[in-house]
Write a structure and sequence with these properties.
Elements (H helix, E strand, L loop, with lengths): L1 E7 L2 E8 L1 H4 L5 E4 L9 E3 L2 E3 L8 H15 L11 H13 L18
Helix pairs in contact: 2-3
Length: 114
């Protein structure tokens, strides 16, 4: 038994564990899997490669940023909130993020879980 990937348009779209004799009777392009790869990865010229990380669209990034600001609005007036200064800095980083070279791909990091 081995793991096999189904390939369509140079992309791994499915995986099964089966005997090679079973796989040879399947329709489509099936190849033996390689460790470290999974559905969504790329298969070209008999080689696997990792799929690129999805890039955030500017709209998605702005929506995420706005959600983060709304979720932390309550911290602003609570000056005794744990790590208050770091949260205020984070909120400023969120507001400034759209003007940075990293926008929209590198999100600001919150100081701690709420």
């Amino acid at each position: 038994m081995a793991t096999y990937f189904k390939i369509e348009n140079n992309t791994v779209i499915d995986a099964i564990v089966a005997e090679s004799s079973f796989v040879s009777n399947l329709t489509g392009n099936w190849v033996q899997a390689q460790d470290g790869f999974t559905i969504g990865d790329i298969y070209e010229n008999n080689n696997f490669s990792k799929a690129p990380s999805p890039q955030l669209t500017e709209q998605d990034a702005r929506e995420w940023r706005n959600q983060e600001l709304r979720a932390t609005d309550f911290i602003v007036p609570l000056t005794d909130f744990p790590n208050h200064a770091a949260w205020i800095t984070y909120r400023q980083e969120l507001r400034d993020w759209t003007a940075t070279e990293d926008f929209p791909n590198t999100k600001p990091t919150a100081p701690a879980e709420l």
